[in-house]
Specification:
By secondary structure, the protein is mainly beta. Helices cover 7% and strands 28% of the residues. The chain has 4 helices and 15 strands. Bound molecules: the ligand CNS(=O)(=O)c1c(F)c(F)c(SCCO)c(F)c1F and zinc ion.
Length: 262
């Protein structure tokens, strides 16, 4: 009904353009990142993450992903530097993932996808008064993308996966205090950057993307716990497992993807 969208056959990425025509715009995300075609931009600075005072407030099931929210009433947790002209405030992070044995990242690298992708969403509180206002501005959001590959257990991800039973159903919210996403960063902050969009409706073309080259490693068992979440609400009799909540790569349409080594 209405602007309802999802990841199924009838409401998935291939039909989002009907309610959200910007889906066919010139700066849509995700994209396939081709490393050798990414131009090395010597003017790019290292990206700086100030997550020290950063602690989470709550965890929720948005009906399309699991979201960990932060108090963004001040500049205690920001991303700076890199391609960014201002500090951007951390608002939330969430994941995109596949089905059992299938990959589920949104960005791909040289045509290859990872098992999952973590998005840390930040907004430009210097130029805009609210997240909502920033979310519709061309330089309003900065999303840090981190790839997840499967291997050994991630030593801190269990803090999140152990809390998933509290937000099994769409619309559920639970307290989730004291989690610092610093523990989810890979060792290198080498990144690719390009101008793109939200990867879910309303698909606003308001995101400066910073995608880290180095993935983090999580176990298949930990990823499997993400798949115990449901797209559906407690009251619905259809229990649809939350998986394959990723949008496929979109056309570059003349955009440059730049890379930074430091
Ligand atoms: C980059 N990933 S995304 O498009 O899927 C995405 C998302 F899922 C979100 F929930 C939010 S915040 C909405 C209000 O909280 C956001 F800004 C996003 F960009
Ligand atoms: Zn996302």
């Amino acid at each position: 009904t209405g602007n309802h969208w999802g990841y199924g056959k009838e409401d998935g990425p291939s039909v989002w353009h009907k309610n959200y025509p910007v889906a066919q715009g010139d700066r849509q995300s995700p994209i396939d990142i081709v490393p050798h075609q990414a131009s090395h931009d010597p003017s790019l600075d290292p990206v700086v993450l100030n997550y020290d005072q950063c602690t989470s407030t709550k965890i929720s099931n948005s009906g399309t992903s699991v979201v960990v929210e932060f108090d963004d009433s001040d500049d205690r947790s920001v991303i700076r530097g890199g391609p960014l002209d201002n500090p951007y405030r951390l608002k939330q992070f969430h994941f995109h993932w596949g089905g059992k044995g299938c990959h589920g990242s949104e960005h791909t690298v040289g045509g290859n996808s990872y098992a999952s992708e973590l998005h840390l969403v930040h907004w430009n509180a210097v130029k805009y008064k609210t997240f909502g206002e920033a979310a519709t501005a061309p330089d309003g959001l900065a999303v840090l993308g981190i790839f997840l590959e499967t291997g050994d257990d991630h030593r801190w991800l269990h803090v999140i996966t152990d809390a998933l039973y509290t937000v099994k159903y769409k619309g559920s919210v639970a307290d989730f205090k004291g989690f610092n996403p610093k523990c989810l960063l890979p060792s290198s902050l080498h990144y690719w950057t390009y101008l793109g969009s939200l990867t879910t409706p309303p698909l606003h073309e308001s995101v400066i993307w910073v995608v880290l080259k180095e993935p983090i490693t999580v176990s298949e068992k930990q990823l499997g716990k993400l798949r115990t979440l449901l797209f559906s609400g407690e009251e619905e009799n259809e229990r649809t497992r939350m998986e394959n909540n990723f949008r496929p790569p979109q056309l570059l349409k003349g955009r440059k993807c730049c890379c930074f080594y430091h």
